[in-house]
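A student in our group prepared the protein record below, which I am reviewing. This is what I was given:
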Amino acid sequence: MNYSFEYIDIILLAMIAGFIFLRLRGILGKKTGFEGKIPPQFGKEFQKINITTKPVSENFDEAAQKEFLKGAKIAYETIITDFSDSDNKLVASKPLLSKKIYDQFKEALQDRESKGQFAEITFIGIKSAAVKTHKKIENSLEVTVDFVSEIITSVKDKEKKIISGDSEKVKTVYDTWVFSKDLKSTNPNWLLIDTLT
């Protein structure tokens, strides 16, 4: 006799779930997106709308510099750690490098690999980053940034003996990097075009 009540409970819960499903379907609908044609009265208006992404403004004011520095710090850390990790390859930082810098970094990594060496790095953080200069050259905006960072780095050989650096000592590093952005491009990435260390 007890078993019949369990079946009634299951049937009752299934009916409640079905009712909720049908109510939600009625309220939310069942379309997965816009499936019809634009009504004629909206078609002409829709064609008038010019959808374009805004390129970087030539006005590199204080607010634009602050926003730029946020991205520059991320790029700096990404490039430093990618260049100094143990695989001797540029993966994460490749979209952030100009061809000239990429070729220079790749050559240095190939040289390190040919000697059977690899780097180890612990990026502690950026103490400061400041825009030193910014100038417009033709259709590009070039920004020079002074970075002060703290890292622990060392280069080791195949036997894991330290060749240079110190795997326990925090080192303060001063770098000056030049970034460039095409003002007409919709690509949000700035490229590292020079290092003035």
Q: What stands out?
A: Residues 2-48 form one domain.
